[in-house]
Amino acid sequence: MKKKEQTTPIDPLVPPPSKKSALLPLVGLLFACALIVLAIFLCRYGVRHLYRENPAFLLSRIEVLTSNEQMRVKTEECLHKLQIQEGLTNLTGIDLRAVRNELCKNPRVANVELQRIFPGTLRVTVKPRVPVAILRFPPESGRGELKVDQEGYVLPQDLPGVTAVLPRITGLTKPENFVEGQKTEDVGVLAFLEFLKKSALRPDGAVYEVFIARLDTENEKMTLYLEANGPFKQSARIVMPTSDISTHLDRIGVIVELKRNRNQTISYVNATYNNIPVRP
Hints:
Elements: H1 19-52, E1 61-65, H2 69-81, H3 96-103, E2 109-117, E3 121-128, E4 131-136, E5 145-149, E6 154-155, E7 168-170, H4 187-200, E8 210-216, E9 221-226, E10 232-241, H5 245-261, E11 266-270, E12 278-279
Parallel strand pairs: 1-3, 4-7, 7-8, 10-11
Antiparallel strand pairs: 2-3, 4-5, 5-6, 8-9, 9-10, 11-12
């Protein structure tokens, strides 16, 4: 008697997988990618034609705000060089960061702010550097004179300013280290600038009207020659260290107040000593 062969029954409710069903995920992925690419294209097209190149935002006015007429002219020249012109440039197509960086290359500029005012105005606010002292180099250096602002940035001599009333800094030993547009690291110059800043904040600051600051870098001190003001006589001298300016100003301030209350004069003060010598 032959044995019957056992066969596995096939479930008629579950059809075998087809090639079409296997391709469905791939087709869906490709379709999604196509939609993403289309969306990116439409966004870039919209930004370009509806914003960056929209004729409604054509530049109709350039406002240059600054307190310095020379800076106004220089700024307008720079914008023209960058091909930013009224009636020709689209306001939304201007790279404000690049324009600001270019304007700040001018050593006369302290800061620049740019603002789009729709539909067609570009506002440029330029803050010029303000000189507070004149750097006078030795005649043999051939450098002549430069200016310096409160932060220590070296400025061109032709920068507008009331040159006659600015104090002159002498005793500069390394003229080659002073570069236009760069901040000086000269200890003596920075000390004098700190003196100007600190003294201006003091109640008695008006009496420290310096017309010459002679630096002695080797001995870390400076000699200040003053205009006649308060108890100080004309060309009165203050000798003080180039470090810890606030402390030495406090020490000198005690003497100034004492002499002023007694209606006495001062022609010489030397704050490099513990017991400050004073001459009437």
